[in-house]
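Title: Comparing notes on inverse folding

I've been comparing how different people in this forum approach sequence design from structure. To keep things fair, I'm posting one structure and asking everyone to reply with a full sequence. Here's the target:
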């Protein structure tokens, strides 16, 4: 189902064309209002009950779990993708000579963690590059064999939206006995992801892009295999069994709360961020991720068409429907950035790509404004 134009729900001034959700989402009015209410309450800490340290977080876990086809016990709350990837890295036991598969020009946070793991384990980084007309999935499958210990990939490439078929790759991962870690920061909320089909070990996602929430609150999915024996990267009092009884905090325990909660970051209660994130996920679930993707696909198809009309090429291969890379000669980028800013049109440039990432606050008029400025 194509969703009608939703700009009225967002804090975007008239005259601004913002097609840069892959960088940071503007706030929904509902998210902004939830944050203001939370700030007002935070003025008076005596009004914050003991339950509010834990119950809002449980509600947020449930919302995120619905988004990915998981149970709320599978979800931890984290401040960043790099934090979640550090947890995943800590729980990967690789042998010398095993291969860690990553993509060429993958996002740095999903590279540095594995470079460190390779250094301490003796594993080897295997960087996948596409050849000819290969899709990313075909290139990944070509590089995997019985030496593969870990595949750490996104659902789409962050520079241009090129698609990685996770279901196809995950079948091969299981076949060779490897592990799968997904950075879904550039897709979750705008492209469907079902952990029941993909069966990853870990999924991380920031909350401030396609999940429309605040900065400094993200999400980690951990498969059940890590719930009883998984190692966190910090030892917060809040993740321990019985910690919601403040009168017994010095009754120290080795037991964690159930599920992935052992991986929660310290201070995850975040009295301002959690209400904002809840408002964002409630709206995404009300729209439906499949519907969001179908709607944004209409816009990106129009972008591809108009790019061709002005003599520009899009990134090769299949792309997701919510983000597209248009190839731009390097000598044109600085002048075009200045021109777009003058016209209050906002996109990103990543490498040689003009990365265009619309959302439901955009319409065909925004696409036409963009290409009028380009032309």
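Reply #1:
Here's my take.
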């Amino acid at each position: 189902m194509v969703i009608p134009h939703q700009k009225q729900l967002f804090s975007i001034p008239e005259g601004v064309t913002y097609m840069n959700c892959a960088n940071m989402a503007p706030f929904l009015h509902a998210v902004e209002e939830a944050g203001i209410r939370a700030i007002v309450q935070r003025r008076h800490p005596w009004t914050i009950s003991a339950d509010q340290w834990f119950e809002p977080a449980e509600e947020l876990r449930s919302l995120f779990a619905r988004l990915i086809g998981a149970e709320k016990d599978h979800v931890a709350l984290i401040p960043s993708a790099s934090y979640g990837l550090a947890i995943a890295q800590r729980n990967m036991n690789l042998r010398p000579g095993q291969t860690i598969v990553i993509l060429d020009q993958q996002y740095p946070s999903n590279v540095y963690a594995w470079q460190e793991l390779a250094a301490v384990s003796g594993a080897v980084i295997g960087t996948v590059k596409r050849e000819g007309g290969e899709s990313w999935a075909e290139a990944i499958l070509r590089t995997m064999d019985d030496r593969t210990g870990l595949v750490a990939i996104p659902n789409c490439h962050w520079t241009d939206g090129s698609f990685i078929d996770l279901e196809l790759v995950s079948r091969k991962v299981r076949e060779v006995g490897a592990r799968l870690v997904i950075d879904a920061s550039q897709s979750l909320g705008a492209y469907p992801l079902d952990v029941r089909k993909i069966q990853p070990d870990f999924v991380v996602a920031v909350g401030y892009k396609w999940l429309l929430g605040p900065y400094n609150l993200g999400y980690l999915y951990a498969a059940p295999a890590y719930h009883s024996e998984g190692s966190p990267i910090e030892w917060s009092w809040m993740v321990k069994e019985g910690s919601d009884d403040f009168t017994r905090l010095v009754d120290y325990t080795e037991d964690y709360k159930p599920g992935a909660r052992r991986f929660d970051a310290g201070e995850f209660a975040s009295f301002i961020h959690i209400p904002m994130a809840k408002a964002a996920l409630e709206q995404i679930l009300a729209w439906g991720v499949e519907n969001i993707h179908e709607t944004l696909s209409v816009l990106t198809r129009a972008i591809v068409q108009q790019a061709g009309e002005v003599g520009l090429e899009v990134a090769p291969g299949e792309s997701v429907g919510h983000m597209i890379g248009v190839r731009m000669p390097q000598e044109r980028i600085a002048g075009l950035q200045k021109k777009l800013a003058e016209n209050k049109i906002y996109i990103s440039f990543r490498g040689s790509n003009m990365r265009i990432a619309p959302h439901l606050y955009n319409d065909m008029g925004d696409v036409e404004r963009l290409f009028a400025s380009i032309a």
